[in-house]
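WP5 quarterly update. Target: histidine kinase. Source organism: Rhodococcoides trifolii. Length: 512 aa.
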Amino acid sequence: MARESRSVARQLFVWQLAAIVVLVALGGTLALINERHDSDAATRRQVVAIAVSLASTPSTTAAIESPDPTALLQPVTEQIRKANDVDFIVVMAPDRTRFTHTTVDLIGKPFTGNIDRALAGETFTETYVGSLGPSIRSVTPVYDGDRVVGLVSAGLTREKITDRFVSGLPVFLGALAGALALAVVASGALSRRLRRQTLGMAPDELRRMYEHNDAVLHSIGEGLIVWDSDDRADVVNDEARRLLNLADGPVKRSDLPESLQQKDSAGMHLTDTRILVVDEVPVMWQGRQLGTVMTIRDHTELQRVTGELDSMTTFAESLRSQAHESANRLHTVITMVELGRAEEAVEFATAELELSQHLIDRLMNTVTEPAVAALLLGKISQAAEQGVELTVTEDTALGSTGSDPRELVTLAGNLIDNAIDASKASDQPWVEVTVRERDSHLVVQVADSGPGMNPDALGAARARGFSTKSGSRGLGLALVSQVVARHGGTLTAENSYGSVVTATIPLVGAKQ
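C-alpha cells (predicted):
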C-alpha cells in the first residue's frame, strides 16, 4: 500500500481531482454570478413589456381621463399582475398620484421613485427601494396624442427575484454535481489505466528502472528487440542494430531481413555477412500478451570454427579408418610371408601403398593450403565409408591465395557433403571434386551422380533453413552462398555429365 500511495497514478489522481474541484467551484461561482445577472436582465425585460403593453392600450388612456380611474384600472392591473407574477403595477397621474396599487391603502398617495425620464417620453428601468422594498421597476408614459396623460410602472421585488433564483438552484447545483462526479469517474478510470501501464510504481522507481534497463540493454552482448502487438519495436538495443544493420530511429518488423519478418521466427538465420541464432518468446502480463521479445546471438565465428573442426574431425576419422585398413593389410602381408608366398606379399603391399601415397603426394604438392588438402583427403575416406566413390581431379591445384582457410573449408566442405548425400540416390554413387585457380579466381566445382538441381531449386537451397535432404545440414548451401556473396562471387548449378555445382570467388592474393 505504501508504494501504491506514492505511485504515479495515485499522485496524478490526487492532483487532477484537486484541479477539477477548483475548476468546478470557480466555474460554478462564475455561472451563478452570470445566472443572477441574466435573472435581473430577464426581470427588466418582463416589467418593461408589461408596462409598455398596458400603457399602449387605448382603454388605459380612456380610464385615466375618466372621472374614476381607480374603479376602471384596479381590477385590470391586478388581473395582469397575478397572471404575470409581478409584485405591483401602478398607474399614476403625471403628478405621481396613484390610481392603482397592490396595497389598496396606497392608492391616491404619491408614487415614490423617479418619473422625470418617463415624463420626457422615455421608458426606463431602475432598482429602487419603494413601499414594498427593493425592487426592479420600469416606468413608461401613457399618451393621448402627443400629450402625456399618465404613467405606468410595473415591478418585481428583490425578494421575489431571489426566490426565483433560489428555486432554480437545485437543478443548477445538481448539474454541477453531476459534472463533478463524471469528472471524478473519468479521473479514476484514467488513474487505473495509468496504474496498469506504470505497474503501480512511483516516479523514482520508474526513473531508476529506466536508467538500469537502459544501461543493461546497451551493454549486453546479445541483440534484443521488444515488439508490441502491432509489430512495432518498443526497444532495440545497440547490438541488435549492429547485427541486423538497422538504422537509427523507429523499427518495424518489415525493416528486418526477410527471414525474420514472420512472427515466431526462432532458429538459425543467415544474413549476407552473419549467421544468427534467433529466439522469440511472448511477453505476458496478468494473462494478456503485451508483445514478444526477440533475442539475437551472433554465431558467425562459432560456425566457421565448427566447420573447420568438422573438417579436422573428418580427417582424423579418415586416418583412423586408414589405420584400421593398414592393420588388416599388414596382417594379410604377414600371413602371406608365413605361407612362403613372399613375392605375392610384396606385390600386394606395394600396390596399396603406391596408390595411397600417390594421392597424398599429389594433393600435398598441388594444394599448398593444409586445411584444404586435409579436407579433401578426409572426404575421400568419408565417402568411401558411405559407399560413395569420391575422386579429386588431376587438374586440382591451389597455391597460396591469402584467403581465410576457414572460408575455403566452409566453401568446399559443404559442397562436397551435399554432393555425397545427393549421389546416394543413384545405383553407383560417385562424386568428383575440382579445386583450382583460374584468372585470379578460386573455382570449386563438385559433380555427383545425384538428380541435380535446377536454378529455382538452387535459389531455394541458398535460402535460410532450406534442405534438399533429411538431416541437420540444411544450412550447407546457405553457408556456401554467404561466403560467395561476401566475396562478390558466383554460384551456379547445371546438369551435364552429372549434377554440377560451381562456386567462384575472386582471390586477392592469387598470383597473376
